[in-house]
Amino acid sequence: xxxxxxxxxxxxxxxxxxxxxxxxxxxxxxxxxxxxxxxxxxxxxxxxxxxxxxxxxxxxxxxxxxxxxxxxxxxxxxxxxxxxxxxxxxxxxxxxxxxxxxxxxxxxxxxxxxxxxxxxxxxxxxxxxxxxxxxxxxx
Length: 139
Hints:
5 strands; single chain
């Protein structure tokens, strides 16, 4: 079974990398670039996971996004995961506070990766994603 993931990622390169990683594992990813697009995508259909860059700059405040998702009855049970890839020094310093605040607002997890590694991301997300179907081997 594959999952549908809504990913709010402002950085196009990071969005492409994450989408590719999840797609390789058999999942479908809808990438949105800001809070408004995320709201539209989430109201249009069901997803299995909401993944958001924690360091939003152009699309709104990530905590406002979590609060909105957790107020919507049909979105509340969907795991909400925050992601930080290659955080700057200030973000590293503040990461524990962000982690605590994210949990208080209802996020299921806060993932911080010093650099993007597909295996590390998939291991962190494994508890929220169904086991993907095995792809047939080419002969």
